[in-house]
Amino acid sequence: MNATLSELHSRKSVRAFTAETVSPDQKRALFEAALQAPTAGNMTLYTILDITDPALKTRLSETCDHQPFIATAPVVLVFCADYKRWYDVFCRYNDTVRKPSAGDLLLAQADTLIAAQNTVVAAESMGLGSCYIGDITENYELHKELLGLPDYVVPTAMLVIGHPTDQQKSRPKPPRFAVEDVVHTNAYDPTKNMAQMLKKRQELDESAFADWIVKFCKRKWNSDFSIEMSRSCKAIINDFCKKE
User: Count of CB atoms within 10 A of residue 179's CB?
Assistant: First the structure.
């Protein structure tokens, strides 16, 4: 296994960091790595917000589902899908320009997430830990105001990055599905059994699995944050497409 594959296999989310800073050169290298990501039409449909204001970090730690480690993370980055730059320049040089719509939003969000993942891989290669904060897509209206986002700019992913503590380094990585569970050939295979996949991954018998899945559903699916995320995502789409 080469170094890149090894780092992909060993990488796990890190939510506790040492007091050691991430140097300006390291941060610059992370940004440069993001910009090397695949991008639709070489358009770079995203903007990265480098959050350095301690008060803003603290506020985001509260609005993103009350996660205190966000406030103390050495690096906090908000990746925003951004069609404003292109739309503005299109309008400046063309007489007729259609309004951005749902397809543009999804394409820009794909660009944004690919760039964020490049950043995660780069961080791992530098000995830095990282964690995605999906909760940045909650509380859309509040985050739009808090981050000063204009029309056609949407918060899509947040990363916190820093030097992991020894406890985080030694913590086991949660198990992943087997390739055979996830890879289908040529068409979707409806016979693959999700319950069996989960029992195998979590190493649970039927009784323990039933208890686990009930708790997991309550914590992840029926939770207040999940409901708010769905509401916010609808608001994002409506706001992005309102001038269509």
Answer: 7
- What residues form DSSP beta bridges with 153? 82
Tell me how far apart the alpha carbons of residues 7 and 121 are, in angstroms, rounded to a whole number. Answer: 8
In the chain the domains, ranked by start, together with CATH numbers, are: 3-172 (3.40.109.10)
DSSP state, residue 42? G
Structural tokens at position 204: 């649970």
Report the 10 Å Cβ neighbour count for 2: 7
Q: How many CB atoms lie within 10 A of CB 137?
A: 21
Say which DSSP state 103 is in.
H
Query: How far apart are alpha carbons 164 and 147 in whole angstroms?
Result: 27
Closest by CA position to 209, among listed 195, 222, 190, 227: 195
Question: Residue-wise pLDDT tens for the chain (244 aa)?
Answer: 999 999 999 999 999 999 999 999 999 999 999 999 999 999 999 999 999 999 999 999 999 999 999 999 999 999 999 999 999 999 999 999 999 999 999 999 999 999 999 999 999 999 999 999 999 999 999 999 999 999 999 999 999 999 999 999 999 999 999 999 999 999 999 999 999 999 999 999 999 999 999 999 999 999 999 999 999 999 999 999 986 5
Helix (H) or strand (E) holding 154: strand 153-162
